[in-house]
Amino acid sequence: MTTEVYSCKDGQALKEGKLDYAHDVTTREEAEPDAKRRCQQDTTIKKVAYYKVTPDGKFRMFYSYTNPNCKPAAAKVDVAKPVRKARPRKPPEPDFWGKLARALGLRS
Fold first, then answer.
1. How far apart are alpha carbons 29 and 31 in whole angstroms?
2. Cβ(79)–Cβ(73) below 8 Å
């Protein structure tokens, strides 16, 4: 028999959380201190759940722990696309008539 341990952050579904296997945790009494230890190591963990998985694939949750001291994870900053400032564009070079008008003082 294997034990699956799901650890999820605040706002995350339990099945979307991190999955670990704990072969030495098989009872509620062993799961409680293990859950508290996991939450102390990573304060962003909101919930830890322990499932017993049998060799034929059946599973059953036997313990869950909600971290009362959960600190929300810092907001992720999208660093993939840096913000670029627009460069000022130069006005186009005047054509023949524009140069002539400037030379005659009709345009500045």
1. 6
2. no
> What is the distance between the alpha carbons of residues 19 and 34, in angstroms, rounded to a whole number?
14
The amino acid present at 74, given as its one-letter code, is: A
Region 16-34: what's the mean pLDDT? 92
pTM higher than 0.70, yes or no? no
Whether the predicted pLDDT of 2 surpasses 90 = no
Nearest CA among 13, 74, 70, 16 for reference residue 41: 70
| Separation of CA 40 from chain center | 20
Parallel, antiparallel, or unpaired for β 18-21 and 45-53?
unpaired
CA dist 95 → 41, 66, 79, 92, 101 (Å)? 71, 74, 44, 9, 10
